[in-house]
Amino acid sequence: MKEDELFTPVTSEELEIKEYIRPGVGYWADAWRRLKKNKLAVVGLVMIILILALAIFGPIFSPYEYDQTELTNVYGKITLKHPFGTDELGRDVLTRVLYGARISLAVGFVASFINLIIGVFYGGISGFAGGRLDEIMMRIVDVIYGVPILLIVILLMVVLQPGLKNVFIALGIGYWVGMARIVRGQVLSLKEQEFTLAARALGASRWRTLVRHLIPNSIGPIVVTATLLIPNAIFFESFLSFIGLGVSAPMASWGVLASDGSRAFQSHPNLLFFPAIFISVTMLSFNFLGDGLRDALDPRLRK
Amino acid sequence: MEPVIDVKNLRTEFKTYAGVVKAVRGIDFKIYPGEALGIVGESGCGKSVTGLSIMRLITWPPGKIVDGEIILDGKDILKLPESEMRKIRGGEISMIFQDPMTSLNPTLTIGFQLIEMLKLHRDYTDEQAKNRAIELLDLVRIKSPKEVFNQYPHQLSGGMRQRVMIAMAISCEPKIIIADEPTTSVDVTIQAQILNILNDLRSRLNSSVILITHNLAVVAGLCNRIVVMYAGLIVEEGLDKDIFDNPRHPYTWGLLKAVPRVDEEERERLSTIKGLPPDLIAPPKGCPFAQRCSYAMKICFEKLPPYFDIDREHRVLCWLLDKRAPKADRSK
Amino acid sequence: MKKFVLRRVIAMVITLWVIASLTFLLAKVIPGGPFTKEKALPPAVLRNIEAKYHLNDPLWKQYYDYIKNLLRGDLGPSFRYDALTVNDIIKKGFPVSAFLGTIALLISIGLGIPAGIISAYKQNFWQDNFVMFFSILGISIPNFILATLFMYFFSLKLHIFPTAGWGQVGNIVLPAVTLAAYPTAYIARLTRSSMLDVLNQDYIKTARSKGLSEYKVLVIHALKNALIPVVTYLGPLIAAVFTGSFVVERIFFIPGLGRYYVTSIYDRDYTVILGTTIFYAAFLIIANFVVDIVYAIIDPRITYGSGG
Predict the structure, then answer these.
(1) Inter-chain touch B90–C209, beta carbons under 8 Å
(2) Check: complex ipTM more than 0.85
(3) Which one in B79, B125, B274, C238 has a CA-CA gap of 20 to 30 Å to C152?
């Protein structure tokens, strides 16, 4: 076609063929893509899945019980039969570490979950209700925030006696305030946006609006906070165990194992080394994942 | 007359995860002393990036000026070392930003933010700098400048903050003042005041003003020359009477038509330009406006048009000006 | 500004009162707690306790006496050792812990803030990745693991520092570094994210457009704004140093308050536990209060309110 002939107007059909708009990327798809690019976060996620698998299935495949003592083989060396050695009562360290995984991870997830539920609903209701109720609820949060929670937790554990159930109670007491504040902040800003108005106009009850609309849209920060609560819970549990207030023997979380191990580590480093590695790797993984999630879900970093 | 600044073939790009965005794709223009040039276009057309490029405020990552020359005082400022460029920033070219609420440092007093600039580019003593700063505040019509000098930004209203920004920009009597959407974040009454101040300063200091905006009304009052940008290119350029009385690019037509008129018949729908701007990661090989243009021809999608001169100062980037093109009826 | 201080003072008093009451409640109300009369205690201790706490008085009177004693600074006798009072223990241990804690704090601020600044300025370059990697390690590895690791390598294997004890300069290094690990890491991350936020603000663009050097932009314009959120973290930072001290003092055998506290927990020396807890809590709450005031002073938006 010679150039001169190109000077004819374009018909509307031809115009439509030429139209091309780059497809927009949805929020979740974009977040997932960004998360995948973050190598550390992916490593963290993989490690968590691995450790979870070990925790769930490991003890089943072990030939030993976690409290099975073998007094002829105390402080055993690392062998094929006992890949992590044995402890002061001849119990297989590997098995105990795997059982410990169950307990520590359970503490992490359950504590995080409890704080999540309390925090989300407290913050959601406070933010949504607004006015006096919000003020009162937030004053309470401020007071709790000002109280050093760990001290209260310690006090509680001293009084309640060590034990797994009490650990859950103690950890569920005060750490929900951070989540509550974040959720309240989200709800407050979303409340003003128009889709809330639309939902109400369509006749949604206030409870429904809260649960079905406001909370799902706050999921981003909620997920990040919840993920980061898990390593905190694991840390606090091991801390409590270290000062003798965690779960009771012979049940052994990683914290207890590490605490016991730290006493004998000069001569038998494996007793500290293996639980310590597991604690550290788990916490690292959750922190990597939490960081990655935070970056991926931050709407300001889109594009 | 020699131009104060001569921009040649400026190209600026930004690297994003989705690809390289070619924000400014080869623009040329000159500005003469004492002129007010308006750069008009919709969001994303590259006008702000042009302003930032002239100041060399494009930070890498992710942005980079990849080609072009900007001649100031006979030197290409794009090739200057950073230390030289810093003398030019604020000293010979200064910039006023869009949002006065966030453009001032909240933890420093107004006085400090003014004095720091004066002491940087001029050899003032503290005393002289303070006096000059108060003078400047007065010049931009701030009442009680002595009090404001000691105040913090959050204690001032939006309009006052914008005027402080202007005071800062003119404090070293620059040759060029770039105002990036100076009226967008303030309400209408303040808009008028600010434009007045800019105009006043232009004649008083004989500085040139580059006014970047999407609002044609703002440009009409102040600017004697206008550049219309679209998708990183200049599509039309001319004196204000050329653009308003004899526009020749379909995009300009669309822009002018879109301004709602108080005296229009109530039945008329508000006119808009249909469609969306093109993707600047993979910009079209032909005219960027073709997709939305009611007068598009086949060649518009094939090749980028050259500039056609209509008048001494008036040029248009459009195939419709080619003698082979059919006559375009603007009223369509 | 005055209103701000007043509100904080009131909050502080309320919180302290809440804690005092809470500890009292826990001691008395929960069954099997420390003051039920069935415990078999050595007679000397029992005499002290009876004398002090008037266990036969009605509850409200015990509470009233309790609060009165607290306000006088009297935290009661030890539950286990008849010659010691809680105040004695605190007087002995706190100065040691305070010294160690201060050093750790100085390290964490002196190292953490510059690290965070560099990291933010060189975002995504190797300096950033380096700092971020180590800071994630610092917040993820529990300090008792770090402590034992350090002790293993630097004391036992390399013999650079003594293993335990207190009194010489060498004793300070390992415990202080261990204690400083988590706060340094946290401050570095916080400074970095705060700095990144600030560097993206418009007023930084304005500062650059004035022709200021990068150094001036960073130090004069960015830093002050970026440090404000970091200052608010100082309160929790001090708390973290406290809780860290429990572990570090125990492992390195340092005669500080933290170690006595942990020992008292093992011994179930209830009065010491409660008394020390109240002491710690009061200290932290007052520290938080001071930090709040400092924060208000630095941020002109709070000092000057919104006038004009």
Answers:
(1) yes
(2) no
(3) C238
Q: Is C125 exposed, middle or buried (0-12, 13-18, 19+ CB in 10 A)?
A: exposed
Closest CA to C263 of A134, B59, A244, A137: A244
For residue B171, give the chain C residue with the closest CA.
Answer: C210
Beta-strand relationship, B233-239 and B208-213? unpaired
Q: Is residue A245 within 8 angstroms of chain C, CB to CB?
A: yes
B162, part of any domain: no
User: What is the bridge-based pairing of β-strands B208-213 and B176-180?
Assistant: parallel
Chain B contact for C124, CB < 8 A? yes
| Helical (H) or strand (E) element with B25 | strand B19-31
Q: In chain B, which residues have their Cβ closer than 8 Å to the Cβ of C209?
A: 55, 57, 89-90, 94-95, 97
For chain C, the average pLDDT equals 79
Contacts of B165 in chain C (CB under 8 A): 206
Taking each helix axis from N to C end, the angle separating B110-121 and B158-170, rounded to the nearest 10 degrees, works out to: 10
Length of chain B: 332
The domain that holds B78 is classified in CATH as 3.40.50.300
Chain C nearest C-alpha distance from A85 (Å): 19
pLDDT bucket at A18, cuts 50 / 70 / 90: low
**Two tokens at C191?**
């400074």
Continuous segment of H or E residues that includes residue B71: strand B63-72
Question: B217 is in which domain, residue-wise?
Answer: 5-92+174-321
Phi-psi region of B181 (alpha: psi -120 to 50; beta: other; left: phi over 0): left
Vertex B196 angle, CA B241 and B159, to 5°:
130
CA triplet B241, B246, B252: central angle to 5 degrees?
A: 100
Please list, in sequence order, all residues whose beta carbon lies within 8 angstroms of the beta carbon of residue A241, skipping any fewer than 6 positions away. Answer: A247, A253, A255, A256, A258, A259
CB proximity list for B207: less than 8 A, separation 6 or greater: B34, B170, B173, B174, B175, B176, B177, B201
Could you give the domains of chain A?
Answer: 28-63+82-301 (1.10.3720.10)
| pLDDT score recorded for residue B321 | 84
Residues of C in contact with A235 (CB under 8 A): 142
Considering only residues 186 to 225 of chain A, which have any Cβ-Cβ distance to chain C shorter than 8 Å?
none
The burial of C284, by beta-carbon neighbours within 10 Å (0-12 exposed, 13-18 middle, 19 or more buried), is given as: buried
Task: State pLDDT tens for residues C3-58.
Answer: 778 888 888 888 888 888 877 777 666 554 455 544 555 666 666 666 666 666 66
Which residues 6+ apart lie within 8 Å of C277 measured at CB?
Answer: A151, A154, A155, C19, C23
Please report residues of C whose CB lies closer than 8 A to that of A151.
277, 280-281
Domains in chain B: how many in total? 1
Closest-CA distance, A5 to chain B, in angstroms, reads 8
Evaluate whether residue B163 is within a structural domain.
no
The owner of tokens 């050329």 is B242
**CA pseudo-torsion sign B216, B218, B222, B227:** negative
pLDDT tens digits, one per residue of B226-250: 999 998 899 999 998 888 888 888 8
Residue B102 lies in a domain: no
Option in C26, C250, C284 nearest A159 (CB) = C26
Q: Which long-range contacts (CB under 8 A, 24 or more apart) does A252-256 make?
A: A252/A66, A252/A96, A252/A99, A252/A100, A252/A103, A253/A100, A253/A103, A253/A104, A253/A107, A254/A97, A254/A100, A254/A101, A254/A103, A254/A104, A254/A278, A254/A279, A255/A104, A255/A279, A256/A100
